[in-house]
Amino acid sequence: MKLLLLLSFLLVNVLGAKKSRPNFVLIMVDDLGIGDVGCYGNKTLRTPNIDRLAAEGAKLTQHIAASPLCTPSRAAFMTGRYPVRSGMAAESIFGAYVFSASSGGLPKHEITFAEILKKEGYSTGIIGKWHLGLNQERSDDFYHHPLNHGFDYFYGTTVTHLRDCIPGNGSVFLAGAAQTLKRIFVIACITFFTLLILSYTGSLKIPGKVFGYVLLGIIILVGLVVFFFWNFRYLNCFLMKNYQIIQQPLMYENLTQRMTSEAIHFIRRNQNKPFLLYMSYIQVHTALYASAEFRGKSQHGIYGDAVEEVDWSVGKIVNALNINKLQENTLIYFTSDNGAHLEEISSSGEIHGGNNGIFKGGKATNWEGGIRVPGLLHWFGVLKPGTVINEPTSNMDIFPTIVRLSGAAVPQDRIIDGLDLMPLIQNKSVTSEHEFLFHYCNAYLNAIRWNQRNSSSVWKAFFFTPVFHPEESEGCFNSHVCPCCGHLITQHDPPLLFDLSKDPGENNILTPKNEPNFYNILKTMEEATKKHEENLPVVDNQLTVNNVIWKPWLQACCSSWLEFCYCDYDEALVLE
Questions:
Q1: Which is the catalytic residue, given 39, 70, 476, 557?
Q2: 525, 532 Cβ separation under 8 angstroms
Q3: Tens digit of each residue's pLDDT (9 = 90 or more) over 269-296
């Protein structure tokens, strides 16, 4: 009898422990600037629901994205590791995936927080933007699909959405496509006439049919380029539910509301078991859109409308947690994948980029405006309301934080660069464990941040910077994004040095004349850099030109090619 009572007691405790494990709602907005949110100083955009997360929880003021660009930043977020460790950082100008029919993606051997939590019995869902690959060898192998990286449920897009996805919003590719066709034409002409001259002079005997093959090859190549970019919206902009394409091309009307509805239904379905919901908004990346109820309502055009609709959506998700009595057992995290994109303008010339507050630069740069992002954590009854953390933290920190809270162990067979946030946000620690943070521009180490112990200083040194003309172009002159290599960057020897604690806007370059410890500071940072680089593995790069280009045989299509990749099976309900 005593043994039975003991077993019953242990069983109740085990079940209670399982039930007490927290849920996680991880919210990431695309290209949202830190200056776009009220709790970070914005006075003209209405973000009451996001601001409430800060008021009732913790606000991180020096929260850093591991990369200033979508794909590598999200890879780091999912794995807790610098993207260069997984090969998710480009060595060329192609820093992110823009085609759904690319072959690169997050490698299978990388471990995401979704994989770990799924093994712990969590339901795991992602709604919105994935941007870490789709297929590898066939159009239906789904090698890089989120359901093969630990998620049970997916409703969203596999790549970023662009102006080309919405008619009337202009094109990101038009100029590039025209340039590509010019290059093909020039190379083809040179090849064709070289063969013709060699054949005419007798230097090389070339059968007449070779000229026909060359001409046919040129026609096919030009035809593919024209076909793809002419039909970009049908081929690249589609909505998936799990492994099925349910809308092609993607229709943006009420899309944020549809995503919100999916999130709420996911919460309801899993209210009686632990869950992880990754709410990855497609907004506020261009092309911008907003539902009818929000269009024209903000003080900042369509960009402001989109931000305010995202805030509405956040409020709906939080309300769903409250209605289902989950608020005391759910950790909410809110952030952006990188800073606002300053160079974005509409086809009519309207500025479509956001606001990075006092910080210089934006998306694709490692100036603070490109990597310092909102970081809010809310857990009713666990986190003290109004907590403000001024220490350096990273979006990679979410990985070990939620893994440990789930009861699982952080992987020991690889370097995890993120650190558990709980001691810091619960005031059990006053100093961030991040003494150094490394800032990559694609695969190139661009800068380093040193949170000096026993000092109020946070030093930042740049090894190179992009050619930057904010007074002429709101960013990198005549470029969609700032480059990481080539003639459009400036190398610095010695590195540019700033003290972010006194100069967060990075306006005052330190020198031996105005900083007595200049050389000692740089020496410490260079030693840390050397140690860091010694621990970087040699990996296959997932963002090579071959891995990011469009491959027709990988093109996903919801219908036959004769029906031209068109369907609409989306049944998501629009919220009242």
A1: 70
A2: no
A3: 999 999 999 999 999 998 899 999 999 9
Please list the residues that pair with 24 across neighbouring strands: 276, 331
What is the model's pLDDT at position 402? 98
pLDDT band at 2; cut points 50, 70, 90? very low
* Domains of the chain in sequence order: 26-162+237-554 (3.40.720.10)
Question: Considering only 69-83, 115-129, 210-224, which range has the smallest mean pLDDT?
Answer: 210-224
Phi-psi region of 150 (alpha: psi -120 to 50; beta: other; left: phi over 0): left
DSSP 8-state assignment for residue 342: T
**DSSP code at position 573:** P
pLDDT reading at 37 higher than 70: yes
Give the strand pairing for 489-499 and 458-466. Answer: antiparallel
Strands of the sheet containing 239-241, edge to edge, are 387-394, 58-64, 375-378, 330-336, 23-29, 275-280, 123-129, 153-157, 239-241, 244-248, 567-568
- State the Cα–Cα distance between residues 572 and 241, nearest whole angstrom: 10
| 476-495 per-residue burial string, b: 16 or more CB within 10 A, e: under 16 | bbeeebbbbbeebbeeeeeb
Q: Does the annotation mark 487 as catalytic?
A: no
* The two structure tokens encoding residue 496: 């540019």
- With contact defined as beta carbons under 8 Å apart, do 270 and 7 qualify? no
> For tokens 């946070």, what's the residue?
458
Residue 131 is among the residues annotated as catalytic for this protein: yes
Closest to 94 (Cα-Cα) out of 444, 552, 544? 544
Which structure tokens are listed for 179? 């340039």
8 A C-beta contact, residue 340 and residue 367: no
Q: Which of 39, 63, 131, 161 is catalytic?
A: 131
Contact 332, 316 (CB under 8 A): no
175-230 confidence digits (pLDDT tens):
555 555 566 667 767 776 776 676 667 666 666 666 667 667 767 766 766 777 77
Where would I find the H helices in 379-505? Answer: 398-405, 422-425, 470-473
Confidence of residue 417 (pLDDT cuts 50, 70, 90): very high
Provide the percentage of residues in the chain whose pLDDT is more than 70: 86
Label residue 18 by pLDDT band (50, 70, 90): very low
CA 477, CA 491: separation in Å to the nearest integer? 18
Pick from 271, 275, 237, 277: which is nearest to 259 by CA? 277
d(CA 148, CA 145): 5
Please give the distance of CA 125 from its chain centroid, rounded to a whole number. Answer: 17
Does residue 461 contact residue 491 with C-beta atoms inside 8 Å?
no
